[in-house]
Specification:
With 278 residues, the chain is α/β, with parallel strands linked by helices. 38% of the residues lie in helices and 13% in strands. The chain has eleven helices and eight strands. α5 packs antiparallel against α6, α6 (122-142) packs parallel to α10 and α10 crosses α11.
């Protein structure tokens, strides 16, 4: 039943971004979700009844149209521009996100709080999340770690990494870990995730190779190949969700980045537990 001016109908939200879906749930808006992608998996208990409309890059527009969302949430890196254009034909409100570093999470929370301010509990939940984010950002800024030259790999055949103006690179930069190559990818497009050319001279100077748990599932053979790529580096698998998802996962992500950079035995045990649980 449509709402009245005094009691407006709740929003019908479709999220096509996994980390944004998790943020909506953190803000108490799971009840408003009418669609998600197959990659929107956290928190599982709240999402199991929400219809899937394909992946982040291959959205089933016909199914999404039938679900009649009032708001669709997108991301510049994760969704295609042509998807956004098609959605404009039948969706009243598109919200396009593009956090490029951990501190941008504060603005993101503010934005969703403003858009969905009429929904019960959103403001209170947002305040708690802001507090947690500010606390972890402050602890990270106050930390001092040994600088490292890092190759963060997200794909093989070809090897692909991240430019320095991506969220992942800035998360690592917060603990003094500089990603290579020394490239900026711009606001959007393939240059944000450059291909690594084996044999490039800078590879010999890499201190750490990090194999992300997403979007590619690296295995032991990939570890050996990555070691051959950077013979002097330490190669390790890392939790890609904690280093690349924004929203509430950034709270744990900042702790995780500090643990990676800390180099203490107790940190290594926590990193192994985090990574093996994915």
């Amino acid at each position: 039943m449509p709402g009245s001016a005094a009691n407006p109908a709740p929003p019908r939200i479709a999220s096509l971004v996994p980390s944004v879906t998790e943020l909506l749930c953190e803000l108490g808006l799971a009840r408003c979700l009418v669609a998600r992608t197959g990659f929107c998996v956290h928190p599982a208990e709240l999402l199991k009844a929400v219809p899937k409309v394909g992946g982040t890059k291959d959205v089933n527009l016909a199914k999404l149209r039938r679900l009649a969302p009032t708001h669709v949430l997108l991301n510049i890196d994760e969704n295609r521009a042509e998807t956004a254009e098609a959605l404009r034909e039948f969706v009243p409100a598109l919200i396009v996100t593009h956090p490029c570093g951990p501190a941008d999470n504060l603005e993101l929370v503010d934005r969703f709080t403003a858009v969905f301010a009429a929904e019960p509990g959103v403001a209170e939940r947002a305040n708690r999340l802001r507090g947690s984010l500010r606390e972890e950002l402050g602890r990270t800024a106050a930390s001092r770690f040994k600088p490292q030259r890092v190759l963060y790999l997200i794909w093989r055949k070809p090897w692909m990494t991240v430019a320095r103006d991506t969220y992942i690179a800035k998360m690592l930069a917060g603990v003094g870990w500089q990603t290579w190559p020394a490239a900026l990818g711009g606001a959007s497009g393939a240059a944000r995730y450059p291909v690594v050319e084996p044999g490039a001279r800078w590879l010999a100077d890499i201190d750490r190779v990090l194999l992300s748990s997403e979007p590619c599932r690296f295995d032991a053979e990939d570890e050996r190949a990555a070691q051959a790529l950077c013979p002097q580096a330490r190669v390790q698998r890392v939790d890609g969700e904690l280093l690349s998802w924004y929203g509430p996962r950034a709270v744990a992500g900042l702790r995780y980045a500090r643990a990676l950079a800390g180099g203490k035995p107790e940190d290594e045990a926590r990193i192994a537990a985090w990574t093996s649980s994915r």
